[in-house]
Design a protein that fits this description.
- By secondary structure, the chain is mainly alpha-helical.
- It has two domains: 204 residues, Fumarate Reductase Cytochrome B subunit; 145 residues, Fumarate Reductase Iron-sulfur Protein, Chain B, domain 2, CATH 1.10.1060.
- The protein is built from 20 helices and no strands.
- Helix 1 crosses helix 15.
- The longest helix is centred in the first third of the chain and has 30 residues.
- 29% of the residues are buried.
């Protein structure tokens, strides 16, 4: 029976990890649908950002309650999953608590795991209360209805069950309890199971715990909780320039350089004359760069960006969180299209602009960078908004009337005002 269990465990482990790797490959493929972007240089600064923001959680604690609770869950997640290594070894080789041979250190480790399991349990319950009982405003927005709300709650239920199974597994393990070392929490739970078949309960909890972890691992691809993995590369590849510094369109820059070059031949035929002209701005996920698509997958849907957005606060339809969620939803849709058509995208008559994100949302943005500053993992919703507005202006000439008037004045008068340079100071003569 022991050998059969080992084989079953090995098969489950292989299937779980294999499915996870398959989904990660899909994720990488979808991100590579975007334009390549030069992220070379400033390696030390990028590593510093990743260490401070992703590993050190430096921006999370700007909101103390949510930040501290998240840090507890984060540390608990890392620490407790060290115990998974022991479970994997025991499952593959038929041993039982293989690391217990290291002596008193084992008791210290398991004791630490149990304390963090309890802290994580409490933190997750508080998170659930904030979402479903207190009903914080940033979790009640229109984009958070339906699946996003279910997803947020489902992951909390997952974590509660996994922590409970871990404690129950320890509490019903007679061998572990007899060690009287490391059972700092489980010793108080053990009396609840007196008179019951302890070994059966312990084995059931053990199997459910590891199966739950494998399910959780593969659920990440379909959940906002991809940030558990992607927060690290996202902070590494995050922008290093000041938030107020806007990027220039390379295509426009090249045209300006051509115009200003006295030796350039405007009628010369380039080597790629037959190539399709590069689109100005972005109307679909294919027009965005890979960092922007990585941002979309990394979004935690925490709503800090939207809660700080002045346009949203004044009742405008703009929600930076929705921008990222819409981008991710469209990317998922494109990925499914590619899967269904044997690796080739078949035009579906949809695009990010119009079908997901409206013009009204884009033009409500004031480009203040509040959303960029607020994001705890270096996501930049503004870059997507600006690229889509560039498309509207430069490809469709669909800017609002007020903006068209301003741009015409700049073109004709060198300023946003409808006065030529000679008349601008006439006001002081009145």
């Amino acid at each position: 029976m022991g050998l059969v269990s080992n084989i079953i465990f090995g098969v489950l482990l292989a299937v779980g990890i294999g499915f996870f790797v398959k989904n990660i490959n899909k994720l990488i493929r979808n991100i590579k649908l975007g334009k390549a972007v030069d992220i070379s240089g400033s390696t030390s600064e990028r590593w510093k950002n990743m260490a401070m923001i992703a590993l050190g959680q430096s921006k999370m604690v700007t909101r103390p309650i949510a930040g501290i609770l998240h840090v507890i869950v984060y540390i608990g997640f890392v620490v407790i999953n060290i115990e998974v290594l022991e479970i994997v070894i025991d499952g593959l080789f038929g041993t039982h608590r293989i690391f217990s041979s290291i002596g008193p250190v084992y008791g210290i480790l398991i004791g630490t795991f149990e304390i963090f399991a309890l802290l994580v349990f409490v933190a997750v319950v508080v998170f659930w209360l904030r979402r479903n009982v207190i009903r914080l405003k940033r979790f009640m927005s229109s984009e958070m209805k339906g699946w996003p709300k279910q997803d947020g709650n489902l992951i909390l239920y997952f974590e509660i069950v996994l922590m409970a199974l871990f404690i129950i597994m320890n509490a019903t393990d007679v061998q572990f309890q007899n060690m009287n070392s490391g059972n700092v929490i489980s010793q108080f739970v053990a009396p609840w199971f007196e008179g019951l078949p302890l070994h059966a309960i312990e084995r059931t909890a053990w199997w459910m715990h590891i199966i739950g972890i494998l399910i959780f691992l593969n659920y990440l691809y379909y959940s906002k909780h991809l940030h558990i993995i992607l927060a690290f590369p996202n902070t590494y590849y995050g922008r290093l320039t000041p938030n107020g510094q806007l990027d220039n369109l390379e295509s426009v820059t090249n045209e300006v350089k051509l115009m200003m070059d006295p030796d350039a031949d405007p009628y010369a035929v380039s080597d790629d004359a037959d190539a399709e002209p590069e689109k100005f701005g972005a109307s679909d996920v294919f027009d965005l760069n890979r960092i922007q698509l990585l941002n979309a997958y990394t979004c935690t849907e925490c709503g800090r960006c939207t809660s700080e957005c002045p346009a949203n606060q004044t009742g405008k339809k703009l929600s930076p969180r929705k921008i990222m969620m819409d981008t991710r939803d469209r990317l998922h849709e494109v990925g499914k299209n590619i899967d269904a058509n044997k690796g080739v995208f078949t035009p579906d008559g949809k695009q990010l602009l119009g079908d997901y994100i409206t013009n009204e949302e884009l033009w409500a943005c004031t480009s203040c960078n509040a959303c960029v500053e607020a994001c705890p993992i270096s996501i930049n919703p503004l870059s997507i908004i600006l690229d889509m507005r560039r498309y509207l202006v430069m490809e469709q000439s669909a800017a609002p009337t007020e903006l068209n008037t301003m741009m015409t004045n700049i073109e004709n008068n060198g300023a946003p005002w409808p006065y030529n340079q000679m008349d601008r100071l006439n006001w002081n003569k009145e």
